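User: I'm curious whether this sequence folds into something compact or stays loose and floppy. Could you predict its structure so I can see for myself?
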Amino acid sequence: MSDAILKIKNLKIEFKSGKETVQPIRGVNFELKKGETLGVVGESGSGKSVTSLAIMGLLPERTSKIVDGEINFKGNDITNLKEKQYRKIRGNEISMIFQEPMTSLNPVFTIGQQLSEPLRQHRNMSKKEIEKAVINVLNQVGIPRAEQIINEYPHQLSGGMRQRVMISLALLCEPDLMIADEPTTALDVTIQAQILELMKNIKQENDMSLLLITHDLGVVAEMCDRVVVMYAGEIVEVAEINELFNEPLHPYTRGLIDSMPTQNTRKERLYSIRGQVPRPNEITKGCVFANRCPLAFSKCFEETPPVFARDDHLSKCWLQNTKEGEVV
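Assistant: Here's the prediction. I'll summarize afterward.
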């Protein structure tokens, strides 16, 4: 895709745990188009957040490293940039909404002080211009009495308001790419709907690309154009949103969809995928999902499946070994 703003190619990441080395990200490939919302979905432990931290250049230096692959942003390889180079991009061209706003915001600085920092770093603006820009962005995300809020501390705001502050922090420098890592976790349903609608409107108004990381397929259905399904550090399926829900190809994706509650049918018990996501050091050979898959056969335990393509619908499963062919 020539209009891709972000390309991840064969990304592999290693972590050191004592004397042991594990690989939680095992050859991840995906692309994000300009102006697109791409969902990355999977259970906890699938590698979603680690991938986002790698894009932001925020992997812990002492315990982790990218051992293979490439992160390409706007045609430039940013995989091994030095911290000084990354600071010019981070918060300016790529921004991130972190999972938990209470721990992401510094409790000892006011909202205004924290929102001013990106503008001081990336823009040549006076103190009055910075304050005006901060108040404008707070108004944009629907925070009332912004002039007073800038002098308050994070603990004085509700969870929904703190999340709006995090969104405004990500928006300040008008980035080309925004990454949202579980942006509605721990928010009640009403506030969650408001935050999602806010993000959708802001993305359209600012013509941004959005990488939305979540475990909630309901959020994916509401927000995304395409979906990447991750499992145990690998991409197991990629599809347009409607195609993914209408015809999921990978058994893991089917399991995620089947486990969703529906409004129209009353079930005695929701479906659940048996077992749990394997740890990186537990993965040996064969398909990573084989031990939990109800459709697994002998080949699944012995050989790692390639990526099979049905037009733009990709699936890493031996059940798709058909005439459509595989992606090398």
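Summary: The longest strand covers residues 4-17. The chain has two domains: 4-93+173-327, 107-172.
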